[in-house]
Amino acid sequence: MRQILFLFLLTYGTLCAQDGSINNLDEIVLKGNFSPAINSGYEVQIIADSILKESYESLGNLLQKQANFYFKQNGNGMVSSISLRGTSASQTGVYWNGISINSALNGQTDFNTLQGNSFDELEVRKGGGSVLLGNGSIGGAINLKDKLSFEDRQSAFLLAGGGSYETYFSQLTAIWGSDQFYGKISGGIQSSVNDYDFVGTDLKNENGDYQNYNFSALLGFKINDYHSISLNASVFDNDRNLSRTLSAESFSNLESKDRRFLLDWKYVGDRITSSLKAAFLHEDFTYLFNKNITDNGSYGESDRFIAKYDFSYFLNNKMFFRSGLEYENAGGNGSSISSVTRNDATAYVLMHHEPFDRFMYNASFRLGTSSAYEIPFIYSLDAKYELSNRLSLRGAFSTNYRLPTFNDLYWEPGGNPDLKPENSVSGELGLDFKQNDFYIGGAVYFIKSEDLIQWRPVTQDFWQPQNVSDASNFGLEFSTGYNWTVGTHNFGVSGKYDYSIAQDDSIEKQLIYVPKHRAGGILDYSWEKWRFNYNLQYIGEVFITTSNSQSLDAYSLSDISLYRTLFKQVITLGFKVNNLFNENYQSVAYRPMPGRNYLLQINFKI
Amino acid sequence: MKKSNLLFYVVFLAVFLSSCSDDEADPIVPKGDYENGYFITNEGPFQNGSGTITFVEDGGSVSQNVYKTVNAEDLGNIVNSMHIADDKGYIVVNNSNKVVVVNRFTMEKEDVILGDDIVNPRFFVAGGGKGFISNWGDPLNTEDDFITVISLSTNEVLSTIPVGEGPEKMLLVGERLYVCLQGGYGNNNKVVVINAQDNSIVETLTVGDVPNSILLDRNSDIWVLCQGKPSYTGDETNGSLFKIEAGSNALSSQEFTSVQHPSLLNYEDENLYYNLDGKVYRFGINDAELPTEALTGLNGFYYAMNIDNGELYATDAGDYASEGTMKVFNLVSGDLMQTISTGIIPGQIVFP
Question: What ipTM was estimated for this complex?
Answer without folding.
Answer: 0.83
